[in-house]
Design a protein that fits this description.
This protein is mainly alpha-helical. The protein is built from 7 helices and no strands. α3 runs antiparallel to α4.
């Protein structure tokens, strides 16, 4: 699936509009990234080829420069020896070498310009690729967050949470009943100190009653009749 027809489409693309209008934006983002990475490889290859062409032109310029100088030296030698015909042939070869140098220099300028254009394209394409990857990561995070919310809400509304809360309430009520029962048992337990205090209070009352009746001249009641 080709989302872009040329490098300019990628550089000038509006990723937000493309993703907003897509039925599956995460999938489209992956396809965009894949196509950008493929294009990035192609542009890098083209830039490397342009640089290789430039270096080849430089080597050939050096080669033809040496040939030009060599034919110039031979032309001088031929003149010195009185061989004008040879000098003419040497000068012709020298001019051909110079023409080759000019062609190589022009080709080298073209290769250098192509290399710089590819370098600019690489910078722009890399920026677009980084943007696409950032948007893809954001989409993945949003999807994962939505899936997590769906799982949580499904668990809340599938009845299991309500059953767990009901069981917890039942357990809490059972514990309340046990605590109340423990308090009731503790309330009827005999208190040894309290019984002794009541016993001492009873003896004190009996003594005071006996003393009161003695003052009134009445016999003290027997403990047997009280029972």
């Amino acid at each position: 699936m080709g989302l872009f027809s040329r490098l300019g489409d990628i550089i000038n693309s509006n990723l937000n509009a493309m993703l907003d209008g897509a039925e599956n934006p995460e999938k489209i983002a992956r396809l965009i990234i894949q196509e950008m990475e493929d294009t990035l490889v192609e542009v890098r290859t083209s830039a490397a080829r342009a640089m290789a062409d430039k270096k080849e032109m430089e080597r050939e310029i050096v080669h033809f420069g040496a040939a030009r100088d060599d034919w110039a030296a031979k032309a001088e030698l031929a003149i010195d020896k009185g061989r004008e015909d040879l000098a003419r042939g040497a000068l012709l070869a020298k001019q051909k070498a110079e023409a080759e140098i000019v062609r190589r220099q022009e080709a080298m300028l073209i290769a250098e310009e192509a290399f710089h254009r590819r370098q600019e394209d690489l910078v722009k394409l890399q920026a677009k690729l980084d943007e696409a990857k950032a948007k893809h990561r954001a989409l993945v995070m949003r999807r994962e967050a939505a899936e997590q919310r769906i799982r949580m809400r499904s668990q809340l509304y599938d009845g299991r949470a309500d059953e767990a809360i009901l069981r917890y309430n039942q357990l809490e009520r059972k514990v309340d009943e046990m605590e109340a029962y423990a308090d009731a048992i503790r309330g009827v337990e005999p208190n040894l100190a309290q019984e002794f205090a009541e016993l001492e209070q009873s003896d004190s009352v009996e003594k005071e009653l006996t003393a009161l009746k003695a003052r009134k001249g009445k016999p003290a009641p027997s403990k047997k009749s009280e029972g």
